[in-house]
Structure formats: C-alpha cells, structure tokens
Design the sequence.
C-alpha cells in the first residue's frame, strides 16, 4: 500500500500569503491610527496644562500682591500699574526661583518669530542693589514710564545675580491676554464710585483684576481676582 502525502499547492500558498499581508496591514494601520490619536491627546493635554499653570500662577500672584512704594529719583512710586496687556506688581516668590523674598514682577507680551505672541515674566528682587541694575541686567523703571515701548526679546530664561533677576516664558503661544482693573478712578480731591478701567495708574491697589488668558488652541473663561484687603464683591467687566 502506497501512502499518499498531502500538502499545500502553490495557489493555496499564495492565497495564504495574501491574507496574511492584508491582516498585517490592517493591524499596523490600527496601531498607527492609535499612536496618532495618543500623540494628539498628549499634545492637547500639554497645551491645557501650560495654560492652566500660567493662569494659576498669575492668579496666585495677584492674591499675594503687596502695596509697596519705592523711592525713585526723589519720588515715591507705588509698584502696581497696568494696562490691557501689561501688569506690574510686588509679590513674594519662593526659593525655587533663586533668592526668596518680595519681587517686582512684570507680565507682558513679546512678539515671536511666528504669528503668535508669548507671555513673559520679568522679575527684580525688591532690593536697591538689584533695582538699580547691574552690568548684565537692566535697572527697574516704573511700567508706566515705558508704556508704548516694545519689550526686548533677548535673554529669556535668564537667572542672573543668584536668581535676583530673571526672565521666564510663562506661556509660549498666547491667543488673548487682556486685563481690567476695578477700583476708584484717580481724581484729585474727589471721591468717585469704583468702576472698571482699562489702565491703572492710581497710587493704591485696585479692588479686583480681571484676567482673560487663552492660547490659539484653548479658550478659558475670564476670571476676576480679588486683591488682598479688598472687600469681596460681585461684578462683571
């Protein structure tokens, strides 16, 4: 008796190879699609976190604002001023940024090489030697004295004078950065009702600051931050 040995024909082998190729193609396509979706989720999450961290830092700083006056060229200046896109104040920073203590903090927009702007914070330690500047960093001057001048884009993320001076990018791409100030308008010899103002140049702190900060990809509702010592209230800008 002869034993008949069975096997695959060439046609069957080609069909099996074709089916295996189709299955592998579908598997790799699914993995590639999943990887792209995961990368998109990571990118959106990172953008949301950057916006959230920047907003929380500014809000926390506003709630810790100190009413400080500085003697500059024989005149007393209250270190709190701002307009719709710039803000300067005095608040404490921890030792994570260098020297712990009170700092003059300035928030403003700077142009980038692209179509967007970035939000940059400049800080000076509240000390005469630092406010007067050094050989490798500029002296502090009141923000109102430089309204309309373009900020310098040089020296980002600097840590100079043992951290007493520095410039840090808080948000690399800004969609909207708007500020408003609620308080009594400056009028000599008059006492007026508080109102919302686009520019604050009073010799006292406002009661509230409105903050609206977004990115080109993420929107976020505006918030009203009550400054220290101000009575709580409900108001809308």
Sequence:
């Amino acid at each position: 008796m002869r034993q008949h040995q069975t096997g695959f024909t060439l046609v069957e082998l080609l069909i099996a190879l074709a089916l295996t190729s189709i299955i592998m193609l579908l598997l790799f396509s699914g993995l590639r699609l999943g990887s792209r979706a995961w990368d998109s989720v990571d990118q959106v999450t990172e953008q949301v976190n950057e916006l959230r961290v920047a907003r929380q830092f500014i809000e926390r700083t506003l709630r810790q604002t100190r009413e400080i006056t500085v003697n500059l060229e024989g005149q007393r200046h209250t270190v709190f001023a701002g307009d719709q896109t710039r803000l300067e104040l005095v608040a404490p920073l921890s030792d994570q940024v260098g020297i712990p203590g009170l700092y003059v903090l300035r928030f403003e927009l700077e142009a980038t090489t692209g179509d967007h702007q970035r939000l940059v914070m400049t800080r000076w330690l509240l000390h005469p030697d630092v406010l007067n500047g050094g050989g490798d960093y500029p002296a502090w001057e009141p923000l109102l004295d430089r309204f309309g001048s373009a900020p310098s884009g040089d020296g980002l993320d600097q840590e100079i004078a043992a951290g007493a001076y520095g410039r840090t990018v808080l948000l690399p791409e800004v969609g909207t950065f708007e500020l408003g100030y609620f308080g009594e308008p400056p009028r000599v010899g008059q006492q007026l009702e508080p109102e919302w103002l686009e520019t604050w140049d009073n010799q006292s702190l406002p009661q509230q600051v409105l903050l609206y900060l977004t990115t080109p990809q993420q929107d976020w509702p505006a918030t009203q931050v009550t400054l220290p010592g101000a009575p709580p209230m409900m108001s809308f800008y």
Summary: Residues 46-226 form one domain. The two ends are 101 Å apart (CA to CA).
